User: What shape does this take?
Amino acid sequence: MDVGSRIRYFRKLYNKTLKEISLDTGLSISFISNIEKGIKKCSLENLEVICSAIGITLSEFFNDNLPPEIEELISIAKNLENDKLKTLLTVARSLKAEQKESK
Assistant: This one.
């Protein structure tokens, strides 16, 4: 797994700019960019603060078993207000029940 590519992937998925990550972490834009490009190594400590700034956990960062659609859905859900999140959950449960009935 290429750590820099994963950082870039999640940063873009969560619509975060290098500047935003830099401001939230205290790391320079060029340092983060160089990590993404594979020029610089990323310590676990820096990775943890970068993930936090993106809005993901280290566990989410290292879990590469989820399809991109699920990761996008999680990204969207994390940014919803509570009432909208409940609506999304209701829709998802309804779709799940509908799928069970059709089998």
